[in-house]
Amino acid sequence: MSTTDCEQGETGWGILEGLPGDPMIWVLIFSELAAFGLFLGAFVVARAIHPAMFAAGQATLDSHLAGLNTLVLVTSGWAAARATAAARASRRQAARGWLFAAMALGAFFIATKLFEYAGEIVLGNGLETSPFFTLYFLLTGFHLMHVCLGIVILALVSRSASVTGVETGAAFWHMVDLLWIVMFPIIYLVQQ
Amino acid sequence: MIPDRIDIAWIVLLGLALATLLVPPLVARPLLGNALLLIFAALKGRRIVLDFFDLRAAPALWRGLVSAWVLIVVLFAWLASAIVALV
Q1: Given CB atoms, is A37 within the 8 Å cutoff of chain B?
Q2: Is the distance from CB of B67 to CB of A23 less than 8 angstroms?
Q3: Cα-based angle A185, A190, A191 (whole degrees, multiple of 5)
Q4: What single DSSP character describes residue B59?
């Protein structure tokens, strides 16, 4: 093996090459998908064991508010995808504009979610009310933390609005979007 | 402005999200309703993977892995609900 081969082997990303953005974000994305997958699996198994308790808990949730949040997050994902397209076309100012739109919609998602939590707490539902609410608050709370982190990442990459930076931030944001798309029907709508 | 692939994906996602909200009041049978909800979730996931993540041009391994994650989670959710409904 020549010196050049060694250098390529040390600096290249191997099988992670070809993914949009920094390959490290994909290590994080695959780890997060695995963690959320297991968490959702636990929720599904717990519901199969306690169907009546989960149906009663689900009935108190505001699925319309969560549905509105789905529309908001999907639109936010669209804005992030538009930001990537603008950055690739060397339109940095437009990319920043789309990133700010994605962040603003993310902030709206957070506000709506907190309003929803407040409604649950007023009804007397908390982390320790039942296994349903423990899993509900942990799953949606863990997701909400990722929305907050996503906004921070988008804000950081908007400073330079470089192609790799925007692709990296948008990839994380799309993961947050994808998680919600799968979580929403499983937690709020699937009936027993 | 002519809508491109990203805009079309967004419109499809909005349509599927609205259709998802209509399933519980319109479909009374849980087995069918749950299947519809989770099929819509899988279709939305597929659009996000291909058009928002932009994995269309990425190596098939990664596109397949993310798509498989969506399929496995929704299939597991549907199977668990179906088993409870049938037992």
Answers
A1: yes
A2: no
A3: 160
A4: -
Residues of A in contact with B53 (CB under 8 A): 20, 171, 174, 178
Q: Rounded CA gap, B61 and A183, in Å?
A: 24
Interface check A40 vs B, CB under 8 A: yes
CA A146 – CA A132 distance, rounded (Å) = 21
Contact of A186 with chain B, judged by CB distance below 8 Å, is answered with yes
Taking only the tens place, the pLDDT of each residue in A50-87 is 999 999 999 999 999 999 999 999 999 999 999 999 99
Contacts for B72 with CB less than 8 Å, ≥ 6 apart: A37
What stretch of H or E contains B70? helix B60-86
pTM of the model: 0.92
Tokens 């689900």 map to which residue?
A: A58
- End-to-end Cα, chain B, rounded Å: 54
- Looking at chain B, which residue has its C-alpha nearest residue A65? B21
